[in-house]
Amino acid sequence: MTLSLELFTQLLVPNNLAPGKEFSENHALFYNQAPDMELRAKIRFIMGQEVDFLATDDDEVKRLVKYWRAELAPELEQNDLDESFDESDLNDLSSDAPVIRLVNHLFERALDLNASDIHFEPEEGNFDVRCRVDGIMTQIETLPVNAQAAVISRLKLMAKLDIGEKRLPQDGRIEYRMGNKNLDLRVSTLPGVHGESVVLRILDRSDVMVSLESLGMPDDVLDEYQKLIHQPHGMILVTGPTGSGKTTSLYATLEKINSKEQKIITVEDPVEYQLEGITQIHVNSKIGLSFASGLRSIVRQDPDVIMIGEIRDHETASIAVESALTGHLVFSTLHTNDAAGAISRLQDMGLESYLLSSSLLAVQAQRLVRQVCENCKEPTPISDVEQKLLNLNPDELSEIYHGKGCQNCGGTGYRGRIGLYELLVMNDDIRHLVNTGADAAAIRRHAVSQGMRTLRQDALQKLMDGLTTPEEVLRVTRSV
After folding, report:
1. DSSP H helical segments within 326-449, as ranges?
2. 429: pLDDT confidence band, cut at 50, 70 and 90?
3. Under a CB-based contact definition with an 8 Å cutoff, are residues 22 and 46 in contact?
4. In the predicted model, is pLDDT for residue 208 greater than 60?
5. At what angle do helices 5-16 and 37-47 cross, to 10 degrees?
């Protein structure tokens, strides 16, 4: 993506600069697209001084954006807020310029790190701000306690929540624009001993939808999966814990099969990304629109493909199976440790084994591991302890990769995540096991004997390919 000068100034000028503030030591503004005279004049007016315009490339502009955002971002000083504020003045307090700038700055810090969530956590002596980056919590700021009420009130005001209500949890959303990014921030508040905790889930609506090919599936798994998703009917389940990329996989799947020749309807909680050409329903329990009730309405809309955000109960599971048996291709998710466990979970919900064996096409279990930063990765010998923990023979793997830490990865040695996949495809043997009441362990053993790659095996392959580390493999696959 080309970072235009206009976007560059939108990122910096509104929040970080005031007339007369220096942009750099020599008052130079770097750009990668020549600005017109009107824009040059506007920038000089905002700066309140003469500014030189120096050409540079995209990477340098992005680096400078991060530098100036960190250097010029306003900090909330102790004396910017009155510790003895009146509760009735929270609305005015949350609209003060220092508070607005501080909250905007924290949002931008989180976005620079590609965070998925921002956590505002009150403690006894301070007010912590942490982000979840590549699945791991990272502290980005420790604020004074006297900033707590103002920051939380600001967040609640932006989310159109009741500022005065501190005893009950609240949910809301914030639409936030930064440069060319349109962000949807899902807000959740929770009362605690030291005050309200606020968590924001970041959804970037301007993100380009990822493709199936970019998720990290092994070639043979990808080929098999693509054959399955083009079947005319049946049910395909994606399983894994929260934050394992299930929704991303389903969206990538729908994008792959989306066409004018098919009608696709989804029922989700919530609708995270809007897909063109697909009818998406947002579950709303307050008005009685549940997965089950939404699904009952969907089947009367003559769909070819149905996507259910999650199967949570017997009623939803029954309608999903019935839809798969009556000519629809159904996708959904479950929370199970492995692929075979999904079959047992559905049986525990009360589904008959013969219905499952007839309707189910496949179950895909998945996890996400952090990738070694490509910018600072370097080979290191694998230790005897690591080989023992991973059950590897000394001659199987002698060298692994670690990131030594750089500006690109924030010093962590990791940048981005990649999926691990375990695809259980239903065949006559497995259907027979399901019908005869075999448990998940027996089904899993049989699938492995027929060539199914487990999550641990896929993780080890990615370790051998230099994509991740032993620590990540053990962290993510220890329970499978």
Report:
1. 339-348, 353-359, 384-389, 428-435, 440-449
2. very high
3. no
4. no
5. 20
The pLDDT of residue 182 is 79
**Could you tell me how far CA 265 lies from the centroid of its own chain?**
22
- Which residue in the block uniquely carries the two structure tokens 């590897």? 392
Q: What is the pLDDT of residue 6?
A: 41
Amino acid sitting at position 52: D
Is the peptide bond preceding residue 35 cis, with omega within 30 degrees of 0?
Answer: no
Max CA pair span of the chain? 82
Which of 134, 131, 76, 137 lies closest to 108 in space, CA to CA?
131
Nearest to residue 361, comparing CAs of 434, 299, 264?
434
Rounded distance between C-alpha atoms, residue 404 and residue 361, angstroms: 43
- Which residues, 6 or more positions from 227, have their beta carbon under 8 angstroms from its beta carbon? none
Residue 189 pairs in a beta bridge with: 170, 198
Phi, psi of 61 (to 5 degrees): -60, -45
pTM (2 d.p.): 0.76
Q: Give Cα separations from 355 to 234, 293, 433, 437 (angstroms).
A: 11, 21, 13, 13
Alpha helical stretches, state H, 58-213 = 58-72, 90-94, 97-112, 148-158
| Position 414, amino acid | Y
Q: Which of 51, 59, 22 is nearest to 35 (CA)?
A: 51
- pLDDT at residue 61 in the model: 52
Mind listing the pLDDT tens digit for each residue in 348-384?
A: 999 999 999 999 999 999 999 999 999 999 999 998 8
Check if the beta carbon of residue 198 is closer than 8 Å to that of residue 173: no
> What's CA 406's distance to the chain center, in Å?
23
